[in-house]
Design a protein that fits this description.
By secondary structure, the protein is α/β, with parallel strands linked by helices. The protein is built from 31 helices and 26 strands. Helix content is 36%, strand content 11%. Belongs to the GcvP family.
Length: 961
């Protein structure tokens, strides 16, 4: 009798029963349950998944059918709301070869630059595009979205300003969601926000550290802000300008107007709306501010052969290094979306982008002219893509347009706004004109095809038109045919290492399978072409999906409410800490500002606490990596009156289950504090214990780790925040949220932490599908398989590399830390040498020197099979043997395959071979590699050279000659 077909759970978990039996034998346990019973403290164990609110596992076809039904509940409409979000056309060559290509979406953050050259080249193309269009010297590798980029711009201005003022002046024509975010983020930091209507002639106050201008404004208005920026400089402040990149192909750049910092979004460069994201925000700065830039910055350095190579620059700025002294808590970027935007610019080129922008401006001008002829009161004459019209009843006009299939925006009770984009056609213009003018037939208003002859930017002063050349680098002038673009993307992908090549055993990062069925719905237009501020009746499918996912996540974590708004784990942390702050202040405990954080914590913890207006006090860890209880009690006692919270990661950052966790949380609660449990390691707990049951009051969850959203080369991510009922009212709200009441009946009234009400909603179907196809029992099995895999690796490698931390029974959680410091003492071989030599063996290195310098943190995940895990273990054993040969004097300390790793093809075929080891040892240390070899494109990169010689834009082609 034939066996039943494999379930999704069977296909997601890489080790079958036979493999797990062999692994258990190596670890010394009879079953995964027995292993978990020993590792996970009994006091926090969740004994069964029966009665769970998670539905039974669905098959892949069943899950897709349910997603189709949810998608069908989103009403098809043409979004013309604007406010920073526009429909766009994703070129098919980019959609197929980037967005839907695992070579791009399963890659990790490019911390190993030698095997990330394709992605880094795409990102430096993004940076070049942004810097060129904004007219500023240096751009970073993307931000989370426009509104958070504005906040980061405000913080850069505060740090760089010469004055001590706490005043930041905001343009009255700012995007409303940006204004809400600025208010929410400024208050905990003691920043005062003052509003000025610059277009109406209002002037700056006497004291300020910075000014923010929207360009074009939320109203669509285009005006010359150079006088305001000059006045800000005279007062000692800096100018931050949020600019529409497509408009900048036709309008003067912020840099030419005097801006110090430019921010915004690249969404309309081919990135779908996705109900608000994910979208790559951007930031660019003038010369002299490069080292103030938050986030990641790609630069040019050179490799061991003196050839140009890309890498992340100025990493000492990053929050994971600076901790409470960090200037930002940004831990991720929107790499996948930044790549799409950069390739959109390369595909269309400068002429193509100007053509798209000109068409948009012409359509807007045609619509305004038609409305004027019909007697409508158009608010202003100088605009790019947005036309505002005064009407008797804005709500009635918006509803009339909605009945015709168009979503407009009621700016106030008597003003309607219409934004056009590259997808808008003559029929759309006619229908919208008719809805606004109250006519049946828009053609009678003279719209028709007239836009093709209408001048662009007709009402904009000539001195505001851009005259300088844009995007002059050859990368923007060489890939305009589909053949050329397809081959360009393939060349870049081939220079990278992603999960489609092999295991990425990164501790703390969970590079698990991102199944194709989970990814499928992301590209469906019913999810992709939806505006984040669309009316609730038009997005019932999204709201139902979000409600279900919030409920499932609350059930799995033991909390009462979940907000999906934070679009990164760092933003989820910040939202949770702001909720704690709001809770204390609501009770009159404004003095509770101390946040206790263990010394082993993720760097974002301390940075987030500071940005939430808290003061960080570090708690020591003992030799086993656990929180030092004596030090914790002493710190609680010392801060009994001002204790706000404890942030703790569980299982710990050291990869072990702390058995005293309930005692720890009880002590904090007894002192009046709240407990923030960092959810970074939830994939070692899911189905076995819940944060809410071990004393957590609030947590963030990394959907891009535990719940299978891909890392995308360093982003996108989603970092929902989950909380107990008493904190739920303080979770992130949003001025344009379609639903006031969330799963469990919670109402969120805290300030927003992202531009869109539901954050990066466009990728939530991935995690929805993952949970739906795994079911509660499948999720539990995944946790058990992940913990078994980590303990198997630790057991097999402990005789070659000491395992630094372990819990009861010598067990680890889902990851293990291998201590390479003794190896360096014995052989001279460093953690960097081992990491780079792993490339020659066909692997991405584990996490280097976190949380302890000189170590490797290994996380095999549940989705790798035993053969791949064994291949990694065998490589690590072989590398240890190679290091011992160096110690024995068989290979010189300065010339051996480890210190020279990685080896490129050119390095073994060009010139004479004068090394102490053979070519075969260099590039084929395992014979199986002969057929499957991944060839790194560059040799080891000189990091210091790149920081000393900072170049963060595309180098000329001659550099690669």
């Amino acid at each position: 009798m034939p066996s039943a077909p494999a379930s999704f759970v069977d296909r997601h978990i890489g080790t079958d029963a036979a493999a797990q039996r062999a692994m258990l034998d190596a670890v010394g346990y009879d079953s995964i349950d027995a292993l978990a019973d020993r590792a996970v403290p009994a006091a926090i164990r969740q004994r069964a998944t029966d009665g769970s609110g998670i539905p039974p596992a669905a098959s892949e076809s069943e899950a897709l059918a349910e997603l189709r039904a949810l998608a069908g509940r989103n009403r098809s409409a043409r979004p013309m709301i604007g406010l920073g979000y526009y429909d766009t056309i994703t070129p098919s060559v980019i959609s197929r070869n980037v967005l839907e290509n695992p070579s791009w979406y399963t890659a990790y953050t490019p911390y190993q630059p030698e095997i990330s050259q394709g992605r880094l080249e795409a990102l430096i193309t993004f940076q070049t595009m942004v810097a060129d269009l904004t007219g500023l010297s240096t751009a970073n590798a993307s931000m989370l979205d426009e509104s958070t980029a504005v906040v980061e711009g405000m913080l850069v201005a505060r740090r760089a300003s010469r004055v001590a003022s706490d005043v930041f002046v905001v343009d009255a024509d700012a995007l409303p969601q940006t204004r809400a975010l600025l208010d929410a983020r400024a208050e905990p930091l003691g920043i005062r926000i003052l509003e000025r209507d610059f277009a109406a002639g209002e002037t700056l106050p006497d004291e300020l550290f910075g000014v923010f201008i929207q360009y074009p404004g939320a109203s669509g208005r285009v005006w010359d802000p150079s006088g305001v920026l000059e006045a800000a400089h005279l007062a000692g402040g800096l100018g931050v300008v949020a600019a529409d990149l497509l408009a900048l192909t036709l309008l003067r750049s912020p840099g030419s107007l005097g801006a110090d910092i430019a921010v915004g979004t690249t969404q309309r460069f081919g990135v779908p709306l996705g109900f608000g994201g994910p979208h790559a925000g951007y930031m660019a700065v003038r010369a002299g501010l490069e080292r103030q830039l938050p986030g990641r910055l790609v630069g040019v350095s050179q490799d061991a052969a003196g050839q140009p190579a890309y890498r992340l620059s100025l990493q000492t700025r990053e929050q994971h290094i600076r901790r409470e002294k960090a200037t930002s808590n940004i831990c991720t970027a929107q790499v996948l979306l930044a790549v799409m935007a950069a390739m959109y610019a390369a595909y269309h080129g400068p002429d193509g982008l100007r053509g798209i922008a000109s068409a948009v401006a012409r359509k807007a001008e045609t619509l305004a002219s038609a409305l004027r002829r019909a007697g409508a009161d158009v608010v202003c004459d100088a605009f790019f893509d947005t036309v505002r019209v005064r009407v008797d009843d804005a709500a009635a006009v918006v509803e009339r347009a909605r009945e015709r299939g168009y979503q407009l925006w009621a700016a106030d009770a008597r003003t309607v706004a219409v934004s056009v984009d590259e997808t808008t056609d003559a029929r759309d213009l006619a229908a919208v004109a008719a809805a606004i003018a109250g006519r049946v037939d828009g053609e009678g208003l003279g719209v028709g095809l007239a836009w093709q002859e209408t001048p662009a930017l007709a009402g904009v002063a000539a001195e505001m038109h851009r005259e300088d050349e844009i995007l002059t680098h050859p990368v923007f002038r060489s890939h305009h045919s589909e053949t050329a673009m397809m081959r360009f993307l393939k060349r870049l992908a081939d220079r990278d290492y992603a999960l489609d090549r092999g295991m990425i055993p990164l501790g703390s990062c969970t590079m698990k399978l991102n199944a194709a069925t989970e990814m499928a719905a992301v590209s469906w237009p019913e999810f992709a072409r939806v505006h984040p501020f669309a009316p609730a009746d038009d997005v019932r499918g999204y709201l139902a999906l979000i409600d279900q996912l919030e409920g499932w996540l609350a059930e799995m974590t033991g909390y009462d409410a979940v907000s999906l708004q934070p679009n990164a784990g760092s933003q989820g942390e910040l939202a949770g800490l702001l909720a704690i702050r709001g809770y204390h202040r609501s009770r009159g405990d404004e003095g509770r500002t101390v946040c206790l954080i263990p010394s082993s914590a993720h760097g974002t913890n301390a940075a987030s606490a500071v940005l939430a207006g808290m003061r960080v006090v570090v708690v020591a860890c003992d030799e086993a990596g656990n929180v030092d209880l004596d030090d914790l009690r002493a710190k609680i006692s010392a801060h009994a009156g001002d204790l706000a919270a404890l942030m703790i990661t569980y299982p710990s950052t050291h990869g072990v289950y702390e058995h005293d966790v309930v005692e720890i949380t009880d002590a904090v609660h007894a002192a009046g504090g709240q407990v923030y449990v960092d959810g970074a390691n939830l994939n070692a707990l899911l189905g076995y214990a819940r944060f809410g049951d071990l004393g957590g009051d609030v947590s963030h969850l990394n959907l891009h780790k535990t719940f299978a959203i891909p890392h995308g080369g360093g982003g996108p991510g989603v970092g929902p925040v989950a909380a107990k009922a008493h904190l739920a009212p303080f979770l992130p709200g949003h001025p344009f949220a379609q639903a006031e009441v969330h799963a469990g009946g919670a109402v969120f009234a805290g300030g927003p932490v992202s531009s869109a009400p539901s954050g990066s909603a466009g990728i939530l179907p991935i995690s929805w599908a993952y949970v739906r196809m795994m079911g509660a029992e499948g999720l539990r099995q995944a946790t058990g398989a992940a913990v078994l895999a980590a303990n198997y690796v630790a057991a097999r490698l402990k005789d070659h590399y000491p395992v630094l931390y372990a819990g009861d029974g010598g067990l680890v959680a889902h990851e293990c830390i291998l201590d390479l410091r003794p190896l360096r003492e014995q052989t001279g071989i460093t953690v960097d040498d081992v990491a780079k030599r792993l490339i020659d063996y066909g692997f991405h290195a584990p996490t280097m020197s976190f949380p302890v310098a000189g170590t490797l943190m290994v996380e095999p995940t549940e989705s790798e099979d035993l053969a791949e895990i064994d291949r990694f273990v065998d490589a690590m054993v072989a590398i240890r043997t190679e290091a011992d040969r160096v110690a024995a004097g068989e290979w010189p300390a300065e010339d051996n395959p480890l210190v020279n790793a990685p080896h490129t093809a050119a390095s073994v075929i060009e010139g004479e071979w004068n090394h102490a080891y053979s070519r075969e040892v260099a590039v084929y240390p395992e014979r199986d590699l002969v057929r499957t070899k991944y060839w790194p494109p560059v040799r080891r990169i000189d990091q210091a050279f790149g920081d000393r010689n900072l170049v963060c834009a595309c180098p000329p082609l001659e550099a690669f000659a």
